[in-house]
């Protein structure tokens, strides 16, 4: 029976599908969540877990306060018929949908979460020869999260240093065609590691790696989300419109995608499956719990910039939505919440700081003398994974590498090499405004050669 079953699976074309399912199950395998009553109060990261829960509560409280101020129900209310009809009529051109946003503001921005991170105080440690040790208050070095050194990063990203990996465009096109014909997710992921993915194949490769190919159930799910948006008026609708108008609509690279971004982010806000799939920090703290949007994600300033790059990959809003959703759940959520995940924003900031101290000591000392926290200069890059800061063609190369190596550590490496690349200019200025002016324009930056340079340096 074993042999005939195996033959039947192969003949029915199910072998690859089963392999892909196992690939995604292994990738999404989570450690058993600690129940609040089981958390060890002596855990050296307990303060960080507590800060994550407090931050989430603070964000939800701000959203609920905005609801009270504007006399809106925190969980939404039935949409009036005229509004529903207008929304339905203009669904494919939502930029023409009339809505008053004067009283709405983003719940939080990258600067707010950075201020919280910089204010964290870890448990005090006994250090030998403390009279000779001077630790600035604004360093992340007190956080006991494990981060890699450059040698370990070089091993992890070793494929990027193999010159034979980079063939001509014709060879790469043929490789993409063969891999996509195999429909094998691990092969698609391996191909993205080369960093030179031809644009016509990128969307299909990302879909296999993220397991976001749509089926009839997904189409039904999208239609249900759309119906919920049309029938229920929620405060997050206004926040979505506000965010897109403040960011993507004013960006030369993304303003043409305004209509589809409205569709995708409105449906995203109603998707209760996201709240079930996202891993939030757990810690027992007292106080009132506040309602969250159906998706569990409170819109923040710049959230639409995580979805905008996908507009270059997909013509269909449905394909775009499910690939963006999978990418957000696996990566973006870790960058926008305070968490102890080794790929979370705290770990990424800590890695950046340690790499800067170790491999650019002159720059580190320069920032110290100016009393400017280096992380303040790059945090907006890290939290947005460089979206809105790099040209789309280069951003997609960077995100190829995130997917290919299943790691956000590439963000810290890339931030470091940009500072190194502009070190001479940075050393000549002495204010935060001038530093930010030097780093404002990344339009000439080429992702792949710079990252290869960063990994190959002594």
UniProtKB/TrEMBL annotation:
> According to the UniProt entry, where is the signal peptide?
none
Q: Which PANTHER family match?
A: TBC1 DOMAIN FAMILY MEMBER 19 (PTHR16110:SF1)
* Pfam family name, one: RabGAP-TBC
Which InterPro entries did the record assign? Answer: Rab-GAP-TBC_dom, Rab-GAP_TBC_sf, TBC1D19
What name goes with this protein? Rab-GAP TBC domain-containing protein
Rab-GAP TBC domain location is 196-406
> Organism, per UniProt?
Stomoxys calcitrans (Stable fly)
Which top-rank group of organisms is this from? Eukaryota
